Amino acid sequence: MTNDVARVYFVDNQGIPTPPPANVVCICSLTGEVIQSAVINGAVSFIILWMYSYEIKVDDIKIFSIENQKQQALT
Prior knowledge:
It comes from Funneliformis mosseae. This is 15878_t:CDS:1. This protein is mainly β. The chain has one domain (about 5-65). It is built from no helices and 8 strands. The strands form 2 sheets. It has a 4-stranded antiparallel sheet with strand order 2-1-6-5, with no helix packed on it. The protein has a 4-stranded antiparallel sheet with strand order 4-3-7-8, with no helix packed on it. The protein starts with a strand and ends in a 9-residue tail after the last strand.
């Protein structure tokens, strides 16, 4: 989307967007806030920002995490 904003969505084995499994949530690791999904270009997506880390959970079991990794440098 941009350098600061991205989206997470599910795809099938052919790379075609597919609805997330039932009971999937995306949570900001810092705040504990549940990130609401939005449909973007036909795919149910979670919008994330580079400055936070996130967890994807199914029935409160973490299946995936995204750790803040953006680096900045002054030259």
